[in-house]
Amino acid sequence: xxxxxxxxxxxxxxxxxxxxxxxxxxxxxxxxxxxxxxxxxxxxxxxxxxxxxxxxxxxxxxxxxxxxxxxxxxxxxxxxxxxxxxxxxxxxxxxxxxxxxxxxxxxxxxxxxxxxxxxxxxxxxxxxxxxxxxxxxxxxxxxxxxxxxxxxxxxxxxxxxxxxxxxxxxxxxxxxxxxxxxxxxxxxxxxxxxxxxxxxxxxxxxxxxxxxxxxxxxxxxxxxxxxxxxxxxxxxxxxxxxxxxxxxxxxxxxxxxxxxxxxxxxxxxxxxxxxxxxxxxxxxxxxxxxxxxxxxxxxxxxxxxxxxxxxx
Amino acid sequence: xxxxxxxxxxxxxxxxxxxxxxxxxxxxxxxxxxxxxxxxxxxxxxxxxxxxxxxxxxxxxxxxxxxxxxxxxxxxxxxxxxxxxxxxxxxxxxxxxxxxxxxxxxxxxxxxxxxxxxxxxxxxxxxxxxxxxxxxxxxxxxxxxxxxxxxxxxxxxxxxxxxxxxxxxxxxxxxxxxxxxxxxxxxxxxxxxxxxxxxxxxxxxxxxxxxxxxxxxxxxxxxxxxxxxxxxxxxxxxxxxxxxxxxxxxxxxxxxxxxxxxxxxxxxxxxxxxxxxxxxxxxxxxxxxxxxxxxxxxxxxxxxxxxxxxxxxxxxxxxxxxxxxxxxxxxxxxxxxxxxxxxxxxxxxxxxxxxxxxx
Lengths: 312, 359
Ligand SMILES: Nc1ncnc2c1ncn2[C@@H]1O[C@H](COP(=O)(O)OP(=O)(O)O)[C@@H](O)[C@H]1O
Ligand SMILES: [Mg+2]
Hints:
The structure holds two protein chains of two kinds. By secondary structure, chain A is mostly helical. Chain A has one domain: MetI-like (MetI-like fold), CATH 1.10.3720. Chain A is 71% helix and 0% strand. Chain A has helices spanning 3-11, 17-43, 63-70, 73-104, 109-124, 127-138, 145-151, 161-164, 166-191, 195-203, 208-219, 221-237, 240-245, 255-264, 273-297. Chain A is flat, with a radius of gyration of 25 Å. Chain B contains eight helices and 20 strands. The mean pLDDT of chain B is 92. Chain B is elongated, with a radius of gyration of 25 Å. Chain B is of the alpha+beta class. Magnesium ion binds at residues 41-42 of chain B.
């Protein structure tokens, strides 16, 4: 590399060739990722709402953010979101995904495939259908499957379990879907571990747990980081399952759902676009900060270091 | 450690990979499993190491049946073609991994690491990661990792196949010396007949999962029991061609076509002389260029190989290879006489490939 390539570049007139190479994806990124963020940030600086319409709005500077800071319910939404993201991530999107992929790669291929396919079902079921099934599972007597099959036969008092254990339900509903994402990625990463390495660790005397700790986890470090980062951000920003399940009732109004309610759906019919976008902007900023922390913490740049070939 | 394989068989979903192998390995012996790729060498090794369970048959260590022992209870060390070092661990961590799993004290791990690092000459590499080592260094580390457990049985699965030719030759000698000094019973899987011939006390030749022969290297070379062994052992490979057996005045001849007939000595009389057409084999080093005696022919090609020249020419209507002294300065197109040393000739039945001398 170096001189030669530079000389070649000098010869070619006009735009550098990488520009056209990247152009299609750059266009997509700008159009669908970058522009929405810019628009969100712009609107968050206004008092735009369905009362003001698109013409009578005014710039309010950072007022929306000040309002977020002093509203008493802010802390509730914030901590609920933190708890929801952390618990779902730890127990399902990472934890359950790891457990399922380790188990299904250590049984016969066919059986493993079958169980993984089972975990994929909720992902290919329409969200509303899927969430309605959970609703019926936990619904109050005389409908709830849980009440009819377990609680009443035991002689206990039936109740609406979605309301009673709302947090558990939003974690389960999201976790059961979310786990399949990590599962697919971890499974292929585990299957890519060289057979000889596994044999060597068995001959060295490693038990199953020791193999997970010393061989499998180090081997799937990068997929682990990727899934953690990706799933943190998607749990923070997606709310459709919770909306269908509880619509934010019973203390399940996570931040993104709050933003949605403020901006696009509330009881008084006044859609506070400006305020809702300020809430969304907070998510964007927190997401960016978290992303940077993850990358730093896991030394993501090691992953994209120069190819080794030349230094061999 | 004495090892016995008894009717050892492995099937994968009905397909037989290893077919009823019987052999015994003496304590301290160095045995090679030799055969072409896909013949079942690795499968056999993995059954001995406890990774695969035999479909049928038994594996005995010191006379005790170990079929159902997990790998960690078998006192074995294993070395792979791919080195199979743990890439995220340093050389030191790779070496002491088995001790660490058993929660041995730090001092013991350090001392043991030093012991094997000295044996393998890798003392200066302890803090490096495998990715920073050359292939030869990685294989030394892998050997060290196998030795640190003080195994009673060492299993090698083509350990030198990824190394360059020079290194392969020097590591070959090194492993042999090491095995001699430590006296550890060893099984060495390879598809390279030179490795097997130079290193092993005894060689088990395997083809399609079936044991073809199990004997000392010289016997494989001089008295091949089957055509397969004759073709597989020896470098350059044995000349093999079909000949017609002729009997004239009580003497036996091999007819090579175009009127070329070679007398077969009494000591090499094929078992069934009524066969008619059979396969004859003769090694390139057992043909010589004669002055005036011998069969007249013309040199078609000369391949200088350093110590010898490999000559290609026609004998009857067969192409034949043989080795000569480069000092003779033979050139393509030269007319020469060939003297085959028929006391070293081999004969095989065509249909079965069985030797008509030794089987
Ligand atoms: N895990 C397995 N599943 C199915 N077939 C296998 C498996 N391992 C080996 N085989 C088959 O068994 C035969 C012997 O393989 P192997 O022992 O690896 O040969 P070698 O080591 O002599 O090259 C091959 O035909 C191979 O395809
Ligand atoms: Mg093999």
